[in-house]
Amino acid sequence: MKRLRLARAWTHEQAAEAMAISRSQFIKLERGERRLTADYIRQAAEAFGAGELEVMGVAGTVPLVGKVGAGAEVHLFDGDASSEQIDEVDAPPGADETTVAVIVAGDSMFPRYLERETIYYRRADASADPTSLIGREVVVRLADGRTFVKVLRRGSSPGYFTLDSYNAAPMEDVVVEWVVPVKWVKRD
């Protein structure tokens, strides 16, 4: 927490106020004299605009779980949203324990993405409503098991979606298993 406070050039008072705790509580948390509970971690993440892992001093890397290439298809290494880590990459701002990354392979996603750029997203929440992401760039898993980076559009009827690409024909009236927004992109 000290690193986060100093990076913002905040005093103990400013950090405590941002977390809605007393100055002495903040100092004890910063020194490790008070246990960093889940509530304190959440408060600090909100106050500092950081990920919970960063507050705990764990952030720095997130799992690299696949690659994205031709046709903007994501090749997850174990085939699902909870892919096993095959490597790790620098964590983006606001990363948390659900943040994962895929790396762009090849030039088929040009001009939107270039080879070796990193696309970050959070693992899928099965209860998420895909319609809330209409018009957004997303990582989307289709009912047939394929996963893509696309722009989500409404399909011809409820429950169906169109996936737009920057350099390929749209995929019309597909059924999605899950969809999550692209959270951050690291340009190479």
TrEMBL record:
Keyword Hydrolase (UniProt): yes
- Record's Pfam families? HTH_31, Peptidase_S24
Enzyme Commission number(s): 3.4.21.88
Q: Which SMART domains match?
A: HTH_XRE
Q: Does the keyword Hydrolase apply?
A: yes
Q: Name one GO molecular function term.
A: serine-type endopeptidase activity
According to its UniProt record, this protein's enzyme class is hydrolase
Q: Which UniProt keywords apply?
A: Hydrolase
**CDD domains cross-referenced by the UniProt entry:** HTH_XRE, Peptidase_S24_S26
Q: Which residues form the HTH cro/C1-type domain?
A: 1-56
> What's the protein name?
Repressor LexA
Taxonomic source organism = Inquilinus ginsengisoli
User: What does UniProt list as this organism's lineage?
Assistant: Bacteria, Pseudomonadati, Pseudomonadota, Alphaproteobacteria, Rhodospirillales
